[in-house]
Write a sequence for this structure.
């Protein structure tokens, strides 16, 4: 299963970064380029243990829906989300937040694979791996800008 790790330093304390990462509105803002919307929102408007959400977005010109669940929340150090239903054979995203001399080290570990066996593995290797990394980097850049912009 393809897996990658992205580390991003944010000039803010771990609790603030953790809270921002669980904010659906910030997630939507970070994915605006892809027309992402929520067609099922988490109860209470924020992600908490067991929250489910259904996203709709367009990638590669194709509309997708992905339903995910948030779990293993340990404030302010980590949480995980995974696909319940959607385009992937499997998708898991672990978010870790650690103190860093400049604020917080945010570590995203993403493991995924496409359906369709050998054809899916080929798509993962040739296209989807790089695309997913770019997507998470864009999301993190938007998160950093929002968090650090509030602090300026």
């Amino acid at each position: 299963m393809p897996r990658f790790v992205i580390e991003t330093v944010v000039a803010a304390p771990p609790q603030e970064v953790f809270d921002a990462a669980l904010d659906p509105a910030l997630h939507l803002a970070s994915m605006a380029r892809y027309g992402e919307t929520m067609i099922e929102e988490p109860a209470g408007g924020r992600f908490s243990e067991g929250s489910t959400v259904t996203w709709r977005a367009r990638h590669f010109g194709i509309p997708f829906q992905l339903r995910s669940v948030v779990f293993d929340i340990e404030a302010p150090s980590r949480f995980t989300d995974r696909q319940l239903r959607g385009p992937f054979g499997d998708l898991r995203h672990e978010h870790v937040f650690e103190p860093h001399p400049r604020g917080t080290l945010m570590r995203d570990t993403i493991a995924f694979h496409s359906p369709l066996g050998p054809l899916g593995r080929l798509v993962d290797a040739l296209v989807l791996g790089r695309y997913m990394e770019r997507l998470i980097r864009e999301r993190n850049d938007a998160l950093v800008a929002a968090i650090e912009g509030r602090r300026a």
